[in-house]
Amino acid sequence: MDENEFAGLAERALERIEAALEESGVEADVERKEGGVLEIEYADGSRMVINRHAAAREIWVAAPSGGFHFRWDGAAWRDTREGSELFAALSRLVSARSGQAVRLKP
């Protein structure tokens, strides 16, 4: 995948994540920042950062529970270690952090 293709796929994923979080009703502030960064701040002050990492052609998630890297497999963004899909993983992470059952749909 070339840099332009990655940038387009990653940008669409970040847009969809932002929309899915807003639709979910989760009690958190979601803010887009320059350079392909999405920051989620929870009521307790903890944060989760989701960003595109162009050099690795991955989407990275930094959560209080750890860091995760997702790579496009041609159909979905998959965790490079365990293979979970990005939106399923984010649903688990956001639910655990917010204390609300959250299901983010791709």
Could you explain the architecture of this structure?
- With 106 residues, the protein is α+β, with helices and mostly antiparallel strands.
- It has one domain: Metal Transport, Frataxin, Chain A (2-Layer Sandwich), CATH 3.30.920.10.
- 33% of the residues lie in helices and 33% in strands.
- It contains two helices and six strands; from the N terminus they run H-E-E-E-E-E-E-H.
- It has helices at 3-24, 86-98, and strands at 28-33, 37-42, 47-53, 58-63, 66-72, 77-79.
- The protein has a six-stranded antiparallel beta sheet with strand order 1-2-3-4-5-6, with helices on one face.
- A hairpin with a 4-residue loop joins strand 2 and strand 3.
- The radius of gyration is 13 Å and the shape is globular.
Quaternary status: single chain
Mean of the pLDDT scores? Answer: 92
Q: How can the largest sheet be summarized? A: 6 strands, antiparallel
Query: What share of residues are in beta strands?
Result: 25-35%
Unreliable residue stretches: none
Query: What is the CATH architecture descriptor?
Result: 2-Layer Sandwich
